[in-house]
Amino acid sequence: MIHFVLLVVCAVAIYLSCEWFVNAVEWLGERLNVGKMAVGTILAAFGTALPESVVTLVAVTTGATDEAKDIGVGAAMGGPLALATVAYGVTGAMLLLKRRRERNAVPATTGLPPSDPLTYPDPENALGTEKDIKRLAKDQKWFLPIFIVKVALGLVAFAFKPVLGLLFFAAYAAYFWREIRGGQDEDEEGEELEPLKFRPKAASPATWAVVAQTLATLVVVFFASQLFVKQLDAIGPMIGLSASVTALLLSPIATELPEIMNAVIWVRQGKTKLALANISGAMMIQATVPSGLGLLFTKWHFDAALLWSGLITMAAIVYLLLTMRAHKLTPARLSVAAGFYVLFALGLIPILG
């Protein structure tokens, strides 16, 4: 019972910490004078993906055996899978729930739209403006070729393969530079930020308070996430799941829980573009930094389960890109992305059997 209690406590701690984190990171973006989307794709994504990258770094550099180092390889593959399927699916589901609540709250005769333009006007209409969809599609187009190369390298062996890890770091550096130079959009200027929770009465909080709240919440998220994963590792065998299934199926969701929580919070606040930017930015980090570390310090060789996770991730991204290209991306179709994770789980049965 103590494992279940700790699981719930950790989930609550992660959610509350993310509530404070997104509040702090928006102020941090304002202090650094970066574009609103860069707050999601760079600042928030870097903060929430840092704990998983540290775990990968520790696993691949200090692992005494190849099996221990392969934990880092699994994390490098599981992160993008969970983000491309579960995180996007949860965001779509939250958008649908938010839209339903707003429609029930606002009489249809008033003609007033909901607060978030990305959830309006109709479920059959595309999610967001053409500009919003193009921005989201651009991130996926960056991610997909990098991820394909990442998977392909797991199927071959040659002498200089470890050196290619440096190219993944370079790819993220190029993405980082593009996002930082993106600047502010016209429709983002002048948006008021909620008061900093550390200094709720300050109209313009001190920079030290913004940094302190950002770092403090990241520390809580890091330790709560690690404790959450350990509880899943203990609960899995209790409910009849093998260690392999727990590691491949439940742990990726647990490690990406901060990004999922951020998306839930930002959608609830009517900032859907930030929610989607956080997920796509985290996917870029997960596709490059852990992969570069894995290539440098491990054999980077995939078994059937890892290859299956890579194929499902690519299938989910292709589905999203095709939907965007047809201008048919709605919250309902976005939520369908979670179905690819179910497909992944079903495919694991014969692979692990």
Could you walk me through the main structural features you see in this protein, from its secondary elements to its overall organization?
The chain has 353 residues and is an all-alpha fold. 75% of the residues lie in helices and 0% in strands. It contains twelve helices and no strands. Helix 3 (66-105) runs parallel beside helix 8 (257-268). The longest helix is centred in the first third of the chain and has 40 residues, at 66-105. It is globular and about 55 Å long. The two termini are 29 Å apart. Residues 115-126 have low confidence and may be disordered.
Tell me the β content: under 5%
What does the overall shape look like?
globular
* Structure class: mainly alpha
User: What is the overall number of helices?
Assistant: 12
Helix content: over 70%
Which stretches are poorly predicted, pLDDT < 50 over at least 5 residues? Answer: 115-126
Radius of gyration: 20 Å
SSE run: HHHHHHHHHHHH
Largest sheet: none
Mean pLDDT over all positions: 83
Brief digest:
75% of the residues lie in helices and 0% in strands. It has helices at residues 2-32, 36-62, 66-105, 130-153, 165-180, 207-238, 243-255, 257-268, 272-297, 304-325, 331-335, 338-352.
Features of this protein?
globular; mainly alpha; 353 residues; 12 helices; 75% helix
Secondary structure topology:
Layout: H1 2-32, H2 36-62, H3 66-105, H4 130-153, H5 165-180, H6 207-238, H7 243-255, H8 257-268, H9 272-297, H10 304-325, H11 331-335, H12 338-352
Helix pairs in contact: 1-2, 1-6, 1-8, 2-3, 2-9, 3-7, 3-8, 3-9, 3-10, 3-12, 4-9, 4-10, 5-9, 6-7, 8-9, 10-12
